[in-house]
Amino acid sequence: MPAGRWLSSYGAAKAGLLHLTSIMALELAPKQIRVNALAPGNIETDMHEHFESAGLAEHIRQRIPQRRFGQPRDLDGATLLLASDAGRYITGAVIPVDGGQLLSWM
Protein backbone atom coordinates (compact mmCIF):
# COMPACT_ATOMS: atom_id res chain seq x y z
CA MET A 1 0.00 0.00 0.00
CA PRO A 2 1.32 3.44 -0.80
CA ALA A 3 1.93 5.91 1.97
CA GLY A 4 -0.76 8.40 2.77
CA ARG A 5 -1.50 10.95 5.45
CA TRP A 6 -3.59 9.83 8.43
CA LEU A 7 -3.07 6.19 7.55
CA SER A 8 -0.17 5.29 9.84
CA SER A 9 -2.01 2.65 11.88
CA TYR A 10 -3.61 1.16 8.78
CA GLY A 11 -0.27 1.04 6.96
CA ALA A 12 1.51 -0.50 9.93
CA ALA A 13 -1.16 -3.18 10.22
CA LYS A 14 -0.93 -4.01 6.50
CA ALA A 15 2.87 -4.19 6.61
CA GLY A 16 2.68 -6.37 9.69
CA LEU A 17 0.31 -8.75 7.92
CA LEU A 18 2.63 -9.02 4.92
CA HIS A 19 5.64 -9.84 7.09
CA LEU A 20 3.67 -12.19 9.33
CA THR A 21 2.53 -14.10 6.24
CA SER A 22 6.14 -14.51 5.05
CA ILE A 23 7.53 -15.49 8.43
CA MET A 24 4.75 -17.95 9.22
CA ALA A 25 5.08 -19.50 5.75
CA LEU A 26 8.80 -20.11 6.37
CA GLU A 27 8.26 -21.48 9.86
CA LEU A 28 5.36 -23.77 8.97
CA ALA A 29 6.40 -25.02 5.52
CA PRO A 30 8.34 -28.02 6.96
CA LYS A 31 5.05 -29.16 8.52
CA GLN A 32 3.28 -28.85 5.14
CA ILE A 33 1.21 -25.94 6.43
CA ARG A 34 0.66 -23.21 3.85
CA VAL A 35 0.29 -19.57 4.85
CA ASN A 36 -0.94 -17.05 2.31
CA ALA A 37 -2.88 -13.81 2.33
CA LEU A 38 -5.26 -11.87 0.17
CA ALA A 39 -4.77 -8.14 -0.27
CA PRO A 40 -8.20 -6.86 -1.22
CA GLY A 41 -8.63 -3.42 -2.66
CA ASN A 42 -11.74 -1.33 -2.20
CA ILE A 43 -14.45 -3.89 -1.63
CA GLU A 44 -18.01 -2.66 -1.15
CA THR A 45 -18.76 -3.52 2.48
CA ASP A 46 -20.44 -1.70 5.34
CA MET A 47 -17.09 -0.07 6.17
CA HIS A 48 -16.88 1.22 2.59
CA GLU A 49 -20.04 3.30 3.05
CA HIS A 50 -17.87 5.95 4.74
CA PHE A 51 -16.34 6.82 1.36
CA GLU A 52 -19.79 7.27 -0.15
CA SER A 53 -21.07 9.47 2.67
CA ALA A 54 -17.90 11.59 2.63
CA GLY A 55 -18.19 12.17 -1.12
CA LEU A 56 -14.90 10.37 -1.84
CA ALA A 57 -16.19 7.35 -3.74
CA GLU A 58 -15.90 8.72 -7.27
CA HIS A 59 -12.38 10.03 -6.69
CA ILE A 60 -11.29 6.63 -5.38
CA ARG A 61 -13.08 4.78 -8.20
CA GLN A 62 -11.17 6.80 -10.79
CA ARG A 63 -7.85 5.63 -9.27
CA ILE A 64 -8.77 1.98 -9.84
CA PRO A 65 -7.84 0.78 -13.36
CA GLN A 66 -11.04 -1.28 -13.63
CA ARG A 67 -13.01 1.85 -12.61
CA ARG A 68 -15.17 -0.05 -10.13
CA PHE A 69 -15.18 -1.14 -6.52
CA GLY A 70 -14.92 -4.82 -5.83
CA GLN A 71 -17.75 -6.95 -4.60
CA PRO A 72 -17.22 -9.48 -1.80
CA ARG A 73 -17.68 -12.29 -4.36
CA ASP A 74 -14.63 -10.96 -6.27
CA LEU A 75 -12.49 -12.54 -3.54
CA ASP A 76 -13.93 -16.01 -4.15
CA GLY A 77 -11.54 -17.17 -6.89
CA ALA A 78 -8.33 -16.33 -5.05
CA THR A 79 -9.73 -17.71 -1.80
CA LEU A 80 -10.68 -20.99 -3.45
CA LEU A 81 -7.26 -21.28 -5.08
CA LEU A 82 -5.41 -20.80 -1.81
CA ALA A 83 -7.76 -22.98 0.24
CA SER A 84 -7.89 -25.91 -2.18
CA ASP A 85 -5.43 -28.48 -3.43
CA ALA A 86 -5.11 -26.35 -6.59
CA GLY A 87 -2.86 -24.11 -4.50
CA ARG A 88 -1.02 -26.88 -2.65
CA TYR A 89 2.41 -25.60 -3.73
CA ILE A 90 1.72 -21.96 -2.92
CA THR A 91 2.96 -20.58 0.38
CA GLY A 92 4.09 -17.15 1.50
CA ALA A 93 2.09 -15.46 -1.26
CA VAL A 94 0.11 -12.27 -0.96
CA ILE A 95 -2.41 -12.04 -3.78
CA PRO A 96 -3.83 -8.61 -4.58
CA VAL A 97 -7.51 -8.67 -5.51
CA ASP A 98 -7.90 -5.00 -6.24
CA GLY A 99 -8.93 -4.32 -9.83
CA GLY A 100 -5.35 -3.22 -10.56
CA GLN A 101 -5.32 -0.51 -7.89
CA LEU A 102 -1.79 -1.29 -6.71
CA LEU A 103 -0.59 -0.85 -10.29
CA SER A 104 -2.02 2.65 -10.41
CA TRP A 105 0.36 3.74 -7.64
CA MET A 106 3.44 2.82 -9.67
Automatic annotation (TrEMBL):
Gene3D superfamilies: NAD(P)-binding Rossmann-like Domain (3.40.50.720). It holds the Pfam family adh_short_C2. InterPro entries: NAD(P)-bd_dom_sf, SDR_fam. It comes from the Bacteria. Belongs to the short-chain dehydrogenases/reductases (SDR) family. This is SDR family oxidoreductase.
